[in-house]
Write a structure and sequence with these properties.
Blueprint (H helix, E strand, L loop, with lengths): L7 H19 L5 H19 L4 H8 L7 H9 L4 E2 L12 E8 L2 E8 L5 H6 L7 H17 L3 E7 L6 H5 L2 H13 L5 E10 H5 L6 E5 L3 E3 L3 H9 L5 H8 L3 H6 L5 E3 L10 H19 L4 H13 L7
Parallel strand pairs: 3-4, 4-5, 5-6, 5-7, 6-8
Antiparallel strand pairs: 1-2, 2-3
Length: 317
């Protein structure tokens, strides 16, 4: 397990507990009471740290290297039923954007999401989860296929942003994202979006328009990352913590502003501490949302989605 800087007190106590147990195993000394005291202190420390996280600490947790990625959710929720589909039929297959058909609790879905890498080699292969225009066009192709066959769509959002390279701009990055937003607004099947990690800028919005939008507890959703905001306003990354607070990018801020529908709770310490529980909770939220949406007529479904986004940002003095 890798630890973030604010988690170091937990690491120290876990190391003490491990040493205490080793002493008990290798000698005749009874260390039961000592271990219990350390376990009690460890539980209190965890609760104290994770119940009082700052916005920047939640951003750090959303990027934790042990945190489950999109393919982890797909494998856990769909098992052997997932059939990956490739390519945008225009340029090539974008490895940062994955998608295909799969079943969750017996219901078929078209599942789409950004995939980051687990190590240096796979991060380069997946372009760090930053999709090119062909990735968003692949996603749109799969969504239109789902619409044709009446299959609901589930998207898993986890990206530091759309790829900002020159070649991506030459192939129409902005147009591809805008087209996705336009088409998702009027797609005639239920759309359920789940932010499982980072939800940055247009890269997230390109697959983020849905009838139900959920955020895991320790994720963020914003027009810009705290580091980029800090570099623009203060010409330095040193103010990223201050920027994170000002951006109001946490799941709780998003829910308060009515920009998402609900927050999916995570185990104490984050999704990576208890993956199985996290997968089960996400599956339950998806199934519940589909149950609420499946009986709506196409006209009502699209109308409610349009009204939902039209009402965002309304302000009265």
């Amino acid at each position: 397990m890798e630890y973030l800087d604010f988690e170091l007190p937990i690491k120290e106590l876990e190391d003490q507990l491990d040493k205490c147990m080793v002493i008990g195993q290798e000698s005749d000394v009874d260390v039961t009471n000592t271990c219990k005291q350390i376990e009690k202190k460890l539980a209190e420390t965890k609760k104290s740290i994770y119940k009082n996280l700052t916005a920047w600490q939640r951003v750090q947790l959303s990027r934790h290297p042990n945190r489950p990625y999109t393919m982890d959710y797909i494998r856990a929720l769909c098992g052997d039923t997932f059939l990956e589909l490739f390519g945008d039929r225009g340029v090539k297959d974008d490895k940062a954007m994955v998608g295909g058909l799969g079943k969750i609790d017996g219901q078929s879905y078209m599942i789409i999401g950004q995939q980051k890498g687990y190590n240096t080699k796979t991060r380069q292969y997946r372009n760090f989860g930053m999709a090119n225009p062909e990735g968003y066009r692949k996603a749109l192709r799969l969504m239109k296929m789902a619409e044709k066959f009446g299959i609901p769509v589930v998207t898993f959002i986890d990206t530091p942003g759309a790829y900002p390279g020159l070649e991506a701009e030459e192939r129409g990055q902005g147009e591809a994202i805008a087209r996705n937003i336009f088409e998702m607004c009027r797609l005639q099947v239920p759309i359920i979006c789940v932010i499982v990690g980072e939800g940055a800028s247009g890269g997230a919005l390109g697959i983020g328009v849905g009838d139900r939008v959920f955020m895991l507890e320790n994720t963020w959703y914003s027009v810009i990352s705290p580091e980029s905001c800090s570099s623009i306003l203060w010409r330095s990354w040193d103010y990223k913590e201050q920027a994170a607070e000002a951006l109001k990018l946490t799941s709780f801020d998003m829910k308060k502003q009515k920009l998402i529908d609900d927050i999916i709770p995570e185990p104490l310490g984050g999704a990576h501490y208890d993956r199985e529980t996290t997968f089960k909770t996400v599956s339950d939220y998806i199934s519940k949302a589909y149950t609420q949406l499946k009986d709506l007529s196409t006209k009502d479904l699209v109308a409610q989605r349009m009204d939902k986004y039209s009402n965002m940002g309304e302000f009265k003095e």
